[in-house]
Amino acid sequence: GQQVMQIPQYQHVQEGEDFTTYCNSSTTLSNIQWYKQRPGGHPVFLIQLVKSGEVKKQKRLTFQFGEAKKNSSLHITATQTTDVGTYFCAGRGAQKLVFGQGTRLTINP
Amino acid sequence: GAVVSQHPSRVICKSGTSVKIECRSLDFQATTMFWYRQFPKQSLMLMATSNEGSKATYEQGVEKDKFLINHASLTLSTLTVTSAHPEDSSFYICSARRGGLNSNQPQHFGDGTRLSIL
Fold first, then answer.
1. What pLDDT score was predicted for residue A93?
2. CB A106 within 8 A of CB A15
């Protein structure tokens, strides 16, 4: 079945450093969504990418969808302590949305 | 908009008890609702997908007689963990989405229910 792999599993950075998490699907996706889950909280929808090669920005966050629509990345520039949490990608194949394992970001102030 | 309320937030009960968890979409009609289980520091494991007015679709390995799902209206879905045992202890989280099975709308999550079975 469809699998979505996300790396790294953990990332610890100094405040101000950049951060990137990568997502790879075993199958071509119709779209990919990104969610953020703060410690003790629930996942919150960040963005959806649909087009091949699409790039979207939200302030310091840059989201990319690969040309083959099988991979995606989230890049955070100059991290802040408020960026702490687990970032999940979720790829939509034929019908189902499959979540990656998530990347847990911790930040040293 | 797109607020999802999940209740209760925490349940502690004895083994053998049945526990009912409610998931409500407060400001939109949720044609489709999802139930997930999340183990500590792990990803979301989809348990079942429910569409209003029809039977839930369970993922492989999830016992439908153990985890009863009812999606009686466009704003309410319930998950009942029947005769719960310690191995059922987990964080259960629901999400709701506008549109049917093929919808690309984002999912909006409830706050989750932490279930502890003694």
1. 82
2. no
What does pLDDT average to over chain A? 94
B1 — pLDDT class (breaks 50, 70, 90): low
What confidence tens digit (pLDDT) does each residue in B40-98 have?
878 899 999 998 878 899 998 999 999 999 988 899 999 999 999 999 999 999 999 98
Give the E-state strand segments of chain A in sequence order. 4-7, 10-14, 19-25, 31-37, 43-49, 55-58, 61-65, 71-76, 85-92, 97-99, 103-108
Name the residue among A31, A50, A102 with its Cβ closest to that of B43.
A102
Distance to chain A for B76, nearest Cα, Å = 18
Identify residue B36 by its one-letter amino acid code: Y
Three-state secondary structure along A73-93?
A: EEEECCCCHHHCEEEEEEEEC
- Burial status of residue B86 (CB atoms within 10 A of its CB: 0-12, 13-18, 19 or more): exposed
| E-assigned strand segments in B1-118 | 4-7, 10-13, 19-25, 32-38, 44-51, 57-58, 67-73, 76-81, 90-97, 108-109, 113-117
Q: What's the rounded mean pLDDT across residues A18-25? A: 97
Determine the Cα–Cα distance for residues B63 and B68; give it in Å rounded to an integer: 9
Largest Cα–Cα distance of chain B, in whole Å? 40
Q: What is the chain B residue with the closest CA to A46?
A: B106
- The label of the residue with tokens 């969504």 reads A33
